[in-house]
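yo

u said u wanted the structure for the complex thing, so here. seqs first:
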Amino acid sequence: MTEVVLRDELLAPGPDDADWGDVVRRARRVRRRRLLATGLAVATIVSLGIGAAYGFGHPIVDFGSAPKGPRTVVNDFGSLEVGAPEGMAPGVLPDEARRITTVTIEDKKHVLWVAPTKRGGFCDQWSDFFGGCRADRHERFAERIDVTYGGSGPDFLGGSFFQSATARLEVAYADGTRDDIPFVWVTAPIDAGFYLFRVPDAHRVDGHRPTEMRLYDAGGRLLRSQPLEHLSLDVLNLNAHRLPGYPLLSVPREAIWEQRRQLFDLRADDGDRIGLWVAPSRSGGTCMWTNQGLGCTRAGEQSKEPTIGLGFSGAATHVTLCCTVGQGVVRVEARFEDGDRIDLPPPKEGYLVWPIPARHYPLGHRLDELVAFDSSDRQIATRQLKTNTAGLYPCAKPKQLGYGVSMCP
Amino acid sequence: MQVDEKADALEQLYRDRYRTFRDVLAGIVGSHDVAREVVQEAFARALRELRRFRGEGSLEAWVWKIAVNVALKERRRRLPEQELATEPVADASPSDPVVRDAVLALPPRRRLVIFLRYFADLSYREIAEIVGVSEGTVAATLSQAHQELAMRLEREAVRP
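structre next:
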């Protein structure tokens, strides 16, 4: 049997369903962040978890008897806990995750998983879509209808609410029309309603877009109305630019790109080039950006910068210090746990960026203090830095934190 | 190669070879639908971790390694106690179902090597890297797979 014959016999011609855009979106998707998605179609609740009942026309799912989540889901929720920055863990109970319902969008099913938190709230996740946490029920927080927007239309609305008397959820449009949004109510300890709604095409254009979400009780009384603040990629106010030798740069839209000047061009120990650019802003101030950070100041604002306005910026294989120092600072010295001291490159126009040498990534050798000096070499400010921020410094052997999460100490 | 150049190369690889990736991986996970998810996820991972690709081997072999790992993980997740080697490729429609069945009946590793060689057009060296064996083992595995396939097809041919 020749190779050619074998290949011809076996190669099964499946449909041409390649979608590079989907790959890019997946790559950019940061777990648990609200996902901006496009190209969505009809969303309908098609199946419910075990123990579902109907109240006021909407399904009610008994959380206690809903199917438990498989290991992948438990890990997903658990990663929120062990992978969270200090003080940001939601207190989720991952082993309690339950399958609530399924929504089909363009023939693709998205399962809603919900897990309670220690503080009376919950974390939720629509599979392959978006998720988040409402970790507690702080009174003001609990009043709000949680709304996630997707696409520029927006193309869909999804989220949750705590008002148990809700019998109807409605979206109102700018043209005065409105739609009911199907939702599912989940019993204690969750005690919340969840929804996912595809905005009709006719309501994705100016003059017809969603403007308000409303909750009504069974008697038709308004429980809550909430204006929608449209969110799209535009609010990020970024432009993407390419420069040879650098990764794709995010540049403030306010910056006048053509008038940019590069103040720093350094190389980290991993070989990556680290740059810092400035450009006048359209509003009279100054914008700056680096490989990993950006910002703009209004005219005259730069004089208000702190004496040492430098912070860590982590990438996969290097860590940099960036971005500003106050007036009068002509030299900054970095001091390390192991006693090493290094003068940073001289600040330029109040800006400074510096890749930390790789030999100072391991614990016991890390940067723990910055000292600023004036033109008389007089010490004018010091700043202590934490050395135990998990996940900041690259390492050879990340520590297993559980739930499939590993992180450098 | 800079990261943006790698990204361009990865996108080109996806556009050129998407269907091959999907069809080969369908042989691991059991259906084209699941295989599509695996391919999308594998390329997304590759895109996220492009910095890790040092250019020591071919970009395609590196992506295949990711894709095969994702597929094997997905297979374990979906049917932890079943032997998927006997799972038919639901969407596959090879011109000769006898050949298809014969290949699907191969032990998983032999079948994977067959797929990587004849569907993905990978070299012995690349397959060795992906599967984690020596080139000699790849050659031996292919030889055994050929023999086994030939025997199965002969049996089918003489069956009344």
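Helices of chain A lie at 3-10, 20-28, 71-82, 139-143. Chain A has four helices and 30 strands.
cya
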